[in-house]
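Example with several molecule types.
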Amino acid sequence: MNKWVYNFGFGKADGNAEMRDVLGGKGANLAEMNKLGLSVPPGFTISTEVCHYYYKNNKEYPKELLMQVNESINEIEEKLKFKLGGNDFPLLVSVRSGSRASMPGMMDTVLNLGLNDNTVQALAKASKDERFAYDSYRRFIQMYSDIVLGVPHEDFEELLEAEKLSNGLILDTELKTENMKSLVGKYKELVRTITKEEFPQDPILQLWGAISAVFDSWRNQRAITYRKLNDIPEDWGTAVNVQAMVFGNMGNDCCTGVAFTRNPSTGDQEIYGEYLINAQGEDVVAGIRTPEPLSKNSINNSTNKQDNSMESKMPILYKELINVFKKLESHYLDMQDVEFTIQKNKLWILQTRNGKRTTNAAIKIAVDLVNEGVISKEEALIRVDANTLEQLLHPTLDPMEEKTILTKGLPASPGAASGKIVFNPDEAEALSKSDEQVILVRTETSPEDIHGMHAAKGILTGRGGMTSHAAVVARGMGRPCVSGASEIFIDEINKTLKIKDKILSAHDIITINGSTGEVILGKISTVDPELSEYFNIIMGWSNEVKTLSIRTNAETPEDVKIAKRFGAEGIGLCRTEHMFFDSERIKFMREMILANNETERKKALAKLEPYQKEDFKEIFTIMEDLPVTVRLLDPPLHEFLPKLEDDNSELLETTGITQKELKNRLEQLQELNPMLGHRGSRLGITFPEIYEMQTKAILEAGLELHKEKNIKVNIEIMLPLIFSSKELKILKDNISRVSEGLLEKETYLPNFIVGTMIELPRAALLADEIAKEADFFSFGTNDLTQTAFGISRDDAGRFLETYIEKSILENDPFVSLDYKGVGELIDIAKKKSRNIKKSIKLGICGEHGGDPKSINFCNKLGLDYVSCSPYRIPIAKLAAAQATLKSNSK
Amino acid sequence: MNKWVYNFGFGKADGNAEMRDVLGGKGANLAEMNKLGLSVPPGFTISTEVCHYYYKNNKEYPKELLMQVNESINEIEEKLKFKLGGNDFPLLVSVRSGSRASMPGMMDTVLNLGLNDNTVQALAKASKDERFAYDSYRRFIQMYSDIVLGVPHEDFEELLEAEKLSNGLILDTELKTENMKSLVGKYKELVRTITKEEFPQDPILQLWGAISAVFDSWRNQRAITYRKLNDIPEDWGTAVNVQAMVFGNMGNDCCTGVAFTRNPSTGDQEIYGEYLINAQGEDVVAGIRTPEPLSKNSINNSTNKQDNSMESKMPILYKELINVFKKLESHYLDMQDVEFTIQKNKLWILQTRNGKRTTNAAIKIAVDLVNEGVISKEEALIRVDANTLEQLLHPTLDPMEEKTILTKGLPASPGAASGKIVFNPDEAEALSKSDEQVILVRTETSPEDIHGMHAAKGILTGRGGMTSHAAVVARGMGRPCVSGASEIFIDEINKTLKIKDKILSAHDIITINGSTGEVILGKISTVDPELSEYFNIIMGWSNEVKTLSIRTNAETPEDVKIAKRFGAEGIGLCRTEHMFFDSERIKFMREMILANNETERKKALAKLEPYQKEDFKEIFTIMEDLPVTVRLLDPPLHEFLPKLEDDNSELLETTGITQKELKNRLEQLQELNPMLGHRGSRLGITFPEIYEMQTKAILEAGLELHKEKNIKVNIEIMLPLIFSSKELKILKDNISRVSEGLLEKETYLPNFIVGTMIELPRAALLADEIAKEADFFSFGTNDLTQTAFGISRDDAGRFLETYIEKSILENDPFVSLDYKGVGELIDIAKKKSRNIKKSIKLGICGEHGGDPKSINFCNKLGLDYVSCSPYRIPIAKLAAAQATLKSNSK
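Resulting structure tokens for the full complex:
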């Protein structure tokens, strides 16, 4: 018989922490915590295999499940002496999702299950608190009806508001027992009206309804979006955890809270958490009431200056909690994110998991754990998600600039951002698609807002604490967030944001600082960030461990400088065409393209040469003796031409052509598929004078630097879009002719080698022949992906998302290298070329060069280097170190 | 010591017919003829290796060459008792090119070399004909000066015309000895004026000048063009043949002629040739005088009805010639093209080679040779150039139509063509690029006209015989040609063509019939050709021998019928999108594309379905039980949309969208690189309803045909542009759902299998995975070529020619499959897929399916079939047979 259900409780468990695949993260931890001897409410986990079965079999369950669930309930009932539907001591349970990866708030949860018209009275009797019992029942009806029966929760909230209004009450806590009872009646009536059936009274019926609702919620829209954003596979599925309820809302000797065992924002060794007295867990997470801090130290961060910390209010229980935290950290060897409830002064641990953290915190915690002797350097390197480093590297607000601070909220996710105020997540997404920077401003966020949060540069909310939905999600996404800014008021109808007496409209610009909680008027300029000592330690360890060399893709002196500062070990791709777009130069470029013959073309090229030479001199000066790979002109010429509707009078004058001729030329140069057109080395073959000019500029730059500053440059001239060794041979011969021409006048010639991009499938397949003519290969994985897949990157938007949703592709192949297809081509090229020329230098210079997964693949293949954009260099270094560690551990 | 020079003469030779690589075709045959015992003027061949050396070493010669040439000359002088520059018996020589492949008229030749102011007198004495001697000297000065010294030949012709004019003469033959002497003086003066030097008198200097000129002519423009048109590699090089002169112009007991041993136009077993009494060889070839036929039988074909045939005029020598022809045919086992000269009643054979022939002749000769027991069936199949079969298959002039015959010339190259009159080869090329059909009309053609002849649909000349330049080249190219139409007169200045009293202008339309010699006014409609019994024999033998199956790419009933008639063994590619372009259907297609949601889209698709079903029924009815591969919709949807500037009122009305919305939609659907865009199976994934409609139409067509006519169809549903097995799986499941849906109502379901195009590199690399989901693969070599090379076929025009000129590519990869790159992908896919699924059916369906070289490659790979356009099926069958024979012979 298959085992579908795993019990836990009373210091024992069927599962353990290793069984995340089957039990989900929550289920595995509940089992593990039981084994650790913590007091965890007993329950059972329905495994993820049931989820697979459910979706494969038209939402039916395996036959044995019913029996196994019944047995588990019986066991809880027996040991706890509470009974589901029991009239004396009714057992109430929670029903929660729990997948292999954490997906906070994305799936459904039902609490207080087991309440009905009878058990509510039993609960009142047992807890000696009638108000609490009916409050729980009312909450349960609302939650269950919303999730399982499809009755909108707003309808219940309307009834609640009406009840308060008609009794002149403001806070929920002011509601009396009668109010609760009255509400229960009204809620049930609402359910009857909408569903045409009575609210279900049988706890077993309730239970199966809730279980199905949780399984169904695996495929709700927000869960799908979240998985897409976080690269979580569709086929993992969720487990369902059914667990006895404990209550944080049975009076003022009760509370509920969440805590991180270290500060998830800074990594500091302090308890970071919040709690609410006389409340249930969802009150904390949903941000409906702003909670109080756990420890006294945190008071400063809060907007509320009164000391309501748990440390002060419940000192003994606080100490017990701290001890639990230590136990958990020393067991899991990492910072934990813990949910707990205190019921009548008894501490129950509801959940623990490795806590999400900011990148700064991740780095500091990892380094601290090494210093505390808990983990090794190598383990520390593995702990930091390389992708997240980028957040640290971007500029922060200029402290010297004067700021009009409008208000201050909680510093919920660090970093700063400026942008247009937008109140609606759909609009945020739409505007960001047209490259607008927006700040999403919401009273509170909910899982439906995720796409808008992702599109926004920053998030500002009026309610909710440091662990509210907005805060957790923003930290996960690396978006700055200020939460709980209680002084802001959003007028949805007039689309205005009122802060104290200031009224801002939609699309006005504000700046938020998620590290201080400040909300600032207008746009604030930024400065380069100070990189922490912890960051430098991690980089140092990465350099020690990694074997791949990390170069950069850069051509402006600014970018080259940034890359050098981040430790670039060379330039892997200097795109010369970017140097032609300056307004001064583009006119000569256009003259060149419009030239009628070689002589005219050469005349225009001669005007461009001094500019190119100066550019190269600047770059070479910064890079000194580090290798610099210069790629000769790549894009189709028409990219440089103006539009017909532009004012082209100057161009027409200098070139002496007419408007009509310009039109003809533009049409002539138009291409149906420019990506596959007259570009790359094809330009070098048909117009040799272009590459000759560039070669001359490169070599003379090196020559002059040698004379002027005694710098010995290391040049790698790279030819793009080669598909045949003969192309390369012809172009190499032309380069040699230029260098021999220089040697006739000079005694010194800078060091240079000649290589090629491998960015077409044919080039990869013929890599042995091509290697004979090349000193190095640089895999242009962007174009190689385009041609291997037959997908134009610019046109892929229409179907790529569908392809990922339908699991045809695991991820966007332009972000993470497709190792099966494109990777196979690289592997073929590597083997063929090294077979012919063992010493050939191999690297990649597509966008993939900054992507950790792709870097891991390049490391496995044994390439020599990867090249990425300047801001991704630290990421690439860490990822390269992680790749080395992974390959060593095999 | 390297051997650079090979002697022949007096029944002996250093070389033989096998040494074409080193001696060129002419040199090898001269050697071979000597060995056969024919009387061939003695001489020597400077090998092609000297040509390689010459071009590699900056036009210098190997050191040993001078000595070897001197030795060879000495030997000729000793044996022939004539001496170069000798005052008694001066030796005159010809210096001719000769490459491995025949390139008639493309390179330079110098005759009469050795003449100077002294030897001309000796020649006069020896030949007892002073006029002949000075005529030869004058010709030599002109030819040598033109070719070696660069003095334009027109300048000499002007002097000749002036000489005739001032003496009241019309024909060259009327010139007296004094005229010749006077011309020699004037010619030498012309050379002095232009070159500032005396015409060279030293025969050895003359010889080396001529040798270099011949080597140089290997790289003149017309030779390069010819090689490109005929796929002759640049690196073969030419040999140079130096041979003692014999003279056909020493009086009326002399003549010179060319002959084919069988009729090269029809293949009939008759002597087909021409001769001129008292003339040199170039007079025949250049078409300056219209020659007389060799045999009496040929008189009917000639415009000149008087019997001046050699058979009547020189009966004994004619018989001797016929005996030589027989000897040559039985030695070379093929029809020969022979040049000969009779000097003072002594027959000299100057050259023999396998004769060029029309396709009809090639077929008949091959079959006849089998029947004569000379060659085997297999050898006969190899003898016919598969590519040329296409000429036979196209329609000919409708015999029932009334024709205004303007005049009649010689039936120089069979076939018929209509087109605009064009007098200039450049204009012919330009017009043909804009898809105009043109007839090139020239007084006579020369090698400079080749590009225009290639561009024209037919060629008409006023002068020249059946072996004139125009006739030989036109037959080689498969262009119809009427030559020697002596009644036509071209007025170059007014751009008119006068035929008798009719005056036609440039761009007026005429029709020529190269099989009858008729020149006809206007355009004449055509009828399907009768295929000869010989053609059918060759096809029958091909079917016996070939192992590849030959299918067709066709979707209109007309094309399918033609293909079936030519023996198509199935349809390899039925492009469903071609069925949507009809004006009735395109509007539903547009409705579908402009639909806002699935429901509207399905509504539009439902309107298209009946049309599709009817199409399939027609096709299936023709093909009966032969396999029919139907490819589901492939191109990007915007290809079906109208242009904004069109009248779209009907479309706007039916769809209810506004002009502005249409504009938006058009812009939305626009793609930067449509070739790599939202097309192929990507449409099937994002809009499943499209492929579902098509599947339904296909299966229901099969179903209804079964009911109505008891036809059991064999359907292969093919999915385009797949790069992953998961795509294929999803689409296959959708197809299954449709077929299961049909089975719910029907008891019979037509036979069908599901497969995919392999047209993206990734699909080839992952062929093992994809094969698990596929019953067959069809390699889409067009797109596979585009993606492997990164070349858009539509944009390749700008550089592909340069790439072929520079030998980067051997030929256009869209015409002949690139076996190194694209072929490697096919090979990988074959191995991987057959490894997983031995039975998987493999074929190709790109344009390459009708290209003999590519077919040979597919045969070598062991594919199951190729698919090509209907008119190429016979070519494909013969090519497939040849491929089998080639692979067997290895």
